[in-house]
Amino acid sequence: MTGNTFNNQDLIQFLQDSPTPFHAVLSMSQRMQAAGFVELNENEDWSLQPGGKYFVVRSGTAIAAFIHGVESSVDHGIRVVGAHTDSPCLKVKPMPSKLSNGYQQLSIEVYGGVLLAPWFDRDLSLAGRVVYRDTSGALKSALINFKRAIGSVPSLAIHLDRAANEGRKINPHVEMDVVLGQSAQKLDFKLLLQEQMQLEGYDNIAEILDFNLSFYDVQPPAVLGLNNEFLASARLDNLLSCYIGINSLIQADTTYTSVVICNDHEEVGSRSEVGAQGPMLKDVLSRINPDPQANQKAIRRSLMLSVDNAHGIHPNYASKHDENHGPIINAGPVIKFDACQGYATNSDSAAFVRWLATKGEPIALQSFVMRADMRCGSTIGPITATELGIQTVDIGLATFGMHSVRELGGVKDGEQLNNLLMRFMSTETLKL
């Protein structure tokens, strides 16, 4: 290992710079380049060198970075870390402009399993990618980020809904259009986007053709708690894991082959060219070992850590947890289990991680399994294991408020997971 550093302030900056998967992948790409990783193009031949450091981006929202180890990956396997770049949010519809009682609004659609209530009364901004035709007729794209608050989803006053605190159901189509301003005219949304693009340095815009834009809360990440023990931020699920995966790879040595892949679309089922059910990881591994038999042998000697957040035991809702499997924030990484394969962990892969945690200074590990009368969520772990035939363990950090507009984690846990991933990337043994 070349070093062992983890910095919560740098994590906070990454979270702040990454309001959408497009921005997260750009930020990770810049970090990889600054650390000496070479960007590859999937449309070209790759000439990989032992000890080389590389990364590839697909469609702007998924990234795979890897070290092509000096030692043969066919003989020593591949250390794979997986995470995802997307988070539940409110996305702008293709024809979003509305005018209601003199208020300009944008209609939204819900992306992923959003916890809707916390999105009300937030200071919202807008970011994402815009595709346009320039004045020469060329097709181009631009990343934009308004950064400032431009809208809100106001709550209905309790005087107009006395049952608001009695379990009222939220209808996102009716109740969650974003209010942007007041006018007698419907907003020309494409003109607004063009003006923002020009503010961000894009010129020669002839026509905006399409866009992929998400609202986000402008409140920055923060360390809080009486003893500064908590980290509050949007998109901890799962940019926290993306950051730690990339940070670990940057610090890893070049002895063994290690891959970090951050897919998109995990929150909606992973079924896309950039999702875990798509071929991206398979494509990258086949480039590392072009011979099919060698590639298959390498995969069967490999292990994947699917890194995604875990549900910390909530002090106000402790009954929602199994009493023996309630992870505590700041008490170490959490191995996640599910007998129905909602998580891909098995006894062998879990035992390996427990063994790894004892190699050197001990790393505390926790276990999570849902109550027997509840079902767990999903991760990229089982999907990748199914697609590749790679042994996998699901692991992550305990958080509160998963899928809220603002989630809560611990300031100590990131370093522990970072240490574990670095140890994983440097170990010669991947099987017990």
TrEMBL record:
<keyword id="KW-0862">Zinc</keyword>
<dbReference type="InterPro" id="IPR023358">
    <property type="entry name" value="Peptidase_M18_dom2"/>
</dbReference>
<keyword id="KW-0031">Aminopeptidase</keyword>
<dbReference type="GO" id="GO:0006508">
    <property type="term" value="P:proteolysis"/>
</dbReference>
<dbReference type="GO" id="GO:0005737">
    <property type="term" value="C:cytoplasm"/>
</dbReference>
<protein>
    <recommendedName>
        <fullName>M18 family aminopeptidase</fullName>
        <ecNumber>3.4.11.-</ecNumber>
    </recommendedName>
</protein>
<keyword id="KW-0479">Metal-binding</keyword>
<dbReference type="Pfam" id="PF02127">
    <property type="entry name" value="Peptidase_M18"/>
</dbReference>
<dbReference type="GO" id="GO:0008237">
    <property type="term" value="F:metallopeptidase activity"/>
</dbReference>
<dbReference type="GO" id="GO:0004177">
    <property type="term" value="F:aminopeptidase activity"/>
</dbReference>
<keyword id="KW-0482">Metalloprotease</keyword>
<keyword id="KW-0645">Protease</keyword>
<dbReference type="InterPro" id="IPR001948">
    <property type="entry name" value="Peptidase_M18"/>
</dbReference>
<keyword id="KW-0378">Hydrolase</keyword>
<dbReference type="GO" id="GO:0008270">
    <property type="term" value="F:zinc ion binding"/>
</dbReference>
<comment type="similarity">
    <text>Belongs to the peptidase M18 family.</text>
</comment>
